[in-house]
Amino acid sequence: MLEVRNLSKTFGNKQIFSNYHLLIPEGQIIAIVGQSGGGKTTLLRILAGLETIDAGELLYNGESMSIDELEKRNLLGFVFQDFQLFPHLSVLENLTLSPIKTMGMTKEAAEKKAAGLLEKLGLANHAHAYPFSLSGGQKQRVALARAMMIDPEIIGYDEPTSALDPELRKEVEQLILKNRETGITQIVVTHDMQFAENIADQIIKIEPKH
Question: In the predicted model, what is the mean pLDDT of the chain?
Fold first, then answer.
């Protein structure tokens, strides 16, 4: 279980969070919804260790830890809104780059793990393809596979259906629901309430501060 207590965060002169509390139960899909500027993505980036906080406490299974510790322990895998796949690398290379460079995984072990994830996500035939040749839904699955390479306890998605057509939106929906069967905790940031209602065990609304 991940818990955020008394979170405060300010950008410039704008306070995004003030004494904010959040509880994320293990194994659930939590949808964070709201308008742009409300802090949805910022919250996800904080949980991924990509943003600092002004004040507050983060606890994982009752253990207090810093933002740096969250990042070091690879608790959260991040699926970015624009996927952030390296265009000059193949799908397989996109998956194995970080584990080899930052986790000390051997190339052989990384490629074996990547192949297993690609098989699981229906992308085995695209291991040597490049991002430009993939559909939006396929890129989403590659980005998810890359996030899963670090064996995170939690996966966070930033606007996973943004700019996708209805068919691909359904594909992403099914992917997230299928992931729940593995017991992994998922946090989904979205502005799409219908999508949130279709996938989430719990919906948290964040409103921009005025």
Answer: 86
